[in-house]
Design brief:
The chain is an alpha/beta fold. The chain folds into 2 domains: 239 residues, Rossmann fold (3-Layer(aba) Sandwich); 163 residues, Rossmann fold, CATH 3.40.50.2000. It is built from 15 helices and 13 strands. The chain has a 7-stranded parallel sheet with strand order 3-2-1-4-5-6-7, with helices on both faces. A 6-stranded parallel sheet has the order 10-9-8-11-12-13, with helices on both faces. Helix 1 crosses helix 15, helix 9 packs across helix 13 and helix 14 packs parallel to helix 15. The two termini are 24 Å apart.
């Protein structure tokens, strides 16, 4: 198949967040089966320009929109005014306004003019607003479905009121915006059953077009047990994502003390991008905070146990999959397993939900080298079988073929 793949950021095997990493695995897997043309945007994040150059050197047909922030001056002011006007008109949440630069439409049109495609694959909500080639089947992958939440009645002091009001208005746009996106495309992919159920609740008319398709990644080298640091617990997360902030605070303040009652030598290392002040403040005698590490691999190798005590949010947890793929024992919550169930075998994870249960499971693994490494070995085998680029591309190809068949039936009718 000839596939047009539209993504908000450049795919990177070693990107600083989950999205570039999973996009690279997607591109790699699809290119082994199909002819892929990539449309993406060059932003201000470190390494994006190098990632695009690397993709081109690998022979990828890349169409790039430049959405980098101009230097101070008239051009930057015009951009700021355009974005403010776009948000003020209503409809789009700010995250979409920020990523969905108009230059992306020109890149899509350029790619469509250069080739005919069998299917268009659209990744993430910011890319849902653009016009794609007419008559071509479309598959939209929604990375995390956002459900309505109660009104926040705690705005803080007067200095916080403008930001609080903006956030409350912006959040309430997501329900209508998501529903409009889901109804634009032939099929919708999500990473977990929870997100599929959320779409069914928020947009019943779209439920029949939803497919659950967990993502993949390029497997890192298996961690060397000789490099493990006894008693080290690792938490990894991008802290722009509120569920990661919540998990880190819960882990350091409540779960770690309970672990140390059972395993006095335990210490926690928190690794992530842009940790906010409340996460940085966790650093102390038994907690280390590592901000913006260039690679998570050395930290995975030193970890005895990886913990992901997530209790909010949807989507699927890259930090869980990265640890499993590296061959590490992972302790997580029921919510942290989302995206890893539904296969012919259950994911090899230690699962618990309350502080005491999570602490007990972690202490058991810290004390038992054999069981810890056995669980990690099974986790790597599971990741290779179900979440490699090849396995993900096989599932995606089936969805693409379904979208094409559905479009043919509709056209024939």
């Amino acid at each position: 198949m000839r596939v047009l793949l539209a993504v908000p950021v450049p795919p990177q095997a070693d990107g600083g967040g989950a999205i570039p990493v999973l996009l690279y695995a997607e591109l790699l897997g699809l290119r082994q089966r199909h002819e892929v043309t990539l449309v993406t945007a060059l932003g201000d994040e470190a390494g994006e320009g190098e990632a695009i150059a690397r993709l081109r050197s690998e022979g990828v047909d890349v169409h790039v929109a430049d959405r980098r922030r101009p230097p101070p001056g008239a051009a930057r002011l015009r951009r700021q005014l355009r974005m403010a006007a776009r948000w003020a008109r209503g409809g789009w949440p700010w995250r979409t306004v920020w990523f969905a630069a108009p230059e992306i439409q020109r890149a899509i049109d350029e790619a469509a003019a250069a080739d005919d495609f069998d299917v268009v694959a659209i990744e993430d909500s910011a890319m849902s607003v653009f016009r794609y080639p007419a008559g071509v089947p479309t598959v939209f992958t929604h990375h995390e479905v956002l459900r309505p939440r109660p009104f926040d009645r705690h705005p803080g002091g007067p200095r916080n009121w403008p930001g609080w009001a903006f956030g409350e208005i912006d959040w309430r746009r997501w329900r209508r915006f998501q529903r409009r996106a889901w109804n634009r495309f032939d099929l919708i992919q999500v990473f977990s059953r929870r997100d599929a159920d959320s779409i069914a609740a928020l947009a019943p008319e779209a439920a029949a077009r939803v497919r659950v398709d967990p993502f993949g990644l390029v497997l890192p080298p298996a961690a060397d047990p000789a490099r493990e640091s006894p008693g080290t617990i690792l938490f990894v997360g991008a802290f722009h994502h509120p569920p990661n902030r919540d998990a880190a605070l819960w882990l350091a303040r409540e779960i770690l003390p309970a672990v140390r009652e059972r395993a006095p030598g335990a210490r926690l290392r928190i690794v992530g991008s842009a940790p906010p002040p409340e996460v940085r403040a966790l650093a102390g005698e038994h907690v280390e905070v590592v901000a913006d590490a260039p690679s998570v691999i050395p930290h995975l190798e030193e970890a005895a146990v990886v913990m992901a005590p997530v209790r909010t949010g949807g989507g699927m947890r890259m930090k869980v999959l990265q640890a499993m793929a590296a061959g590490k024992a992972v302790v997580t919550t029921t919510r942290g397993t989302e995206g890893y169930t539904g296969f012919d075998t259950e994911p090899p994870l230690a699962v618990a939900d309350g502080e005491a249960e999570i602490a007990a499971a972690t202490a058991v693994l810290l004390a038992d080298d054999e069981e810890r490494r056995r669980l990690g070995s099974r986790a790597r085998e599971f990741a290779e079988r179900h979440h490699s680029p090849e396995a993900w591309a096989e599932r995606q190809t089936a969805v693409f073929e379904e979208a094409r068949a559905t479009r043919k039936v509709v056209a024939g009718g």
